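Structure first, sequence second, as always.
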């Protein structure tokens, strides 16, 4: 038996954190067992599904690196199959046409509420033999009336639901289109899904889906329902908690491996370990170790992980992601130093790639103004003299690299009898526009000799305009 899992998003919005975690856990489980992972787009709700959402889901999956062996499979391309199964269920007596109108159902509901009963369909059309005139009909599944459904959930444990609790669910709408629970069942059956891993908001659907699968004589998959993700305030994670869309995390400067590492720990643990490479996740992931209770999204921890991956990731890989952010700033990376060198220089001080890109603009572009505070603190007549001396010494440097630059600064400090800071800070403001940058020799190497000399001259001229 090949372990087969699926991620089955409805394309009614972007790929959010909860969906991404479901996708990751399903992907991990398939990969761990050398199985198959399927991406199934559940787009049968024609009113709410959009191509834009489909694209966002595909983009999110690709950015996270969650590859699939089959798909994207689109449910809207399989209506014939669903219709055939609906007909089969009718033919074998496991489904029936229901002619009850909206008003009748509403009235029933009001009565049940008034009697303090749980609102549910009363099975009025269950045993009808003839259509009551020319009325539009939905198709309902004939749920068993006795016995119970037992879910041996791999996360939540055993859950028993009496069939009396389950009313006859609509499997085809009046226009003949299949409903969510029917399409899920047909596809899980046809795709030989062995493990349905999904959010626990679907747990109420599970016994109904199991009953339909049984009626179709299908093998029942194992189910694993993942606990909810909460925001810091204890409410279900949603837009108002900030970034919940996967692509928003990309935009905010996160690395995909940081988000994946964060997501895997959201509801799953392996001892006290916090850092997991993808290979380790695949090796160590077990559904048994998924928490039963909800997990809380913690932005600080994600940021910490992001910094970890920026610091420890392959600089060439980090540079590829940085390149996108640099591009977002309208900068052509060809106009300055190799991005990989920028990563090495900036990674220690950058928690996100957005920070890193923003702090690296001066390597590629001329800045138009100096930081005011830095000017007040570091630009004065004495600084102008230091800068002039630096300019002349730098002009003589043959090979423009850290060691030579460093030597010039040390020598000048000795000649002038001042400490390094008196030299490095005005120089930094002159070359970067602010008093913050990586080590000055590294900074100047990256800026390049020509630009350094030109910016020093410009700064001297600027200092003369002060007072
Ligand atoms: N399409 C459903 C959703 O996006 C998921 C269905 C399932 O995983 O069974 O919530």
């Amino acid at each position: 038996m090949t372990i087969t899992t699926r991620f089955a998003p409805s394309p009614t919005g972007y790929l959010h954190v909860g969906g991404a975690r479901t996708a990751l856990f399903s992907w991990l489980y398939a990969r761990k067992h050398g199985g198959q992972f399927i991406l199934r787009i559940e787009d049968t709700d024609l009113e709410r599904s959009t191509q834009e959402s489909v694209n966002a889901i595909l983009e999110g999956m690709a950015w996270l690196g969650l590859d699939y062996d089959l798909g994207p499979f689109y449910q809207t391309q399989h209506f014939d199959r669903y219709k055939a199964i609906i007909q089969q269920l009718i033919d074998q007596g496991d489904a029936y046409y229901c002619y009850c109108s909206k008003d009748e159902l509403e009235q029933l509901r009001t009565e049940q509420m008034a009697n303090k009963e749980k609102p549910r369909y009363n099975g009025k059309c269950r045993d009808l033999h003839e259509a009551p005139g020319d009325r539009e009909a939905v198709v309902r599944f004939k749920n068993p009336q006795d016995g119970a459904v037992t879910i041996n959930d791999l996360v939540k444990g055993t859950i028993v639901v009496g069939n009396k609790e389950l009313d006859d669910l609509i499997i085809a709408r009046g226009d003949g289109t299949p409903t969510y629970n029917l399409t899920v069942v047909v596809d899980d059956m046809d795709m030989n899904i062995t493990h349905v891993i999904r959010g626990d908001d679907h747990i109420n659907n599970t016994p109904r889906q199991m009953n339909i699968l049984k009626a179709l004589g299908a093998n029942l998959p194992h189910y694993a329902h993942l606990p909810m993700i909460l925001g810091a305030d204890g409410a279900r994670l949603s837009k108002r908690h900030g970034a919940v869309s996967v692509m928003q995390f990309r935009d905010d400067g996160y690395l995909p491996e940081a988000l994946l590492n964060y997501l895997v720990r959201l509801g799953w643990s392996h001892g006290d370990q916090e850092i997991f490479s993808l290979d380790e996740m695949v090796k160590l992931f077990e559904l048994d170790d998924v928490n039963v209770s909800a997990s809380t999204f913690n932005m600080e921890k994600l940021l910490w992980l992001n910094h970890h991956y920026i610091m420890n990731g392959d600089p060439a890989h980090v540079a590829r992601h940085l390149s996108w952010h640099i591009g977002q700033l309208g900068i052509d990376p060809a106009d300055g130093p190799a991005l990989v060198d920028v990563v090495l220089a900036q990674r220690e001080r950058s928690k996100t790639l957005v920070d890193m890109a923003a702090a690296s603009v001066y390597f590629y572009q001329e800045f138009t103004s100096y930081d005011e505070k830095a000017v007040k603190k570091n630009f004065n007549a004495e600084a102008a003299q230091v800068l002039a001396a630096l300019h002349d010494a730098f002009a003589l440097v043959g090979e423009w690299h850290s060691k030579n630059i460093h030597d010039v600064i040390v020598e000048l400090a000795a000649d002038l009898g001042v400490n390094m800071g008196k030299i490095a800070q005005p120089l930094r403001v002159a070359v970067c526009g602010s008093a913050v940058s990586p080590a000055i020799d590294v900074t100047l190497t990256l800026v390049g000799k020509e630009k350094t000399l030109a910016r020093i001259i410009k700064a001297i001229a600027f200092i003369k305009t002060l007072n």
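Margin note: Residues 314-362 form one domain.
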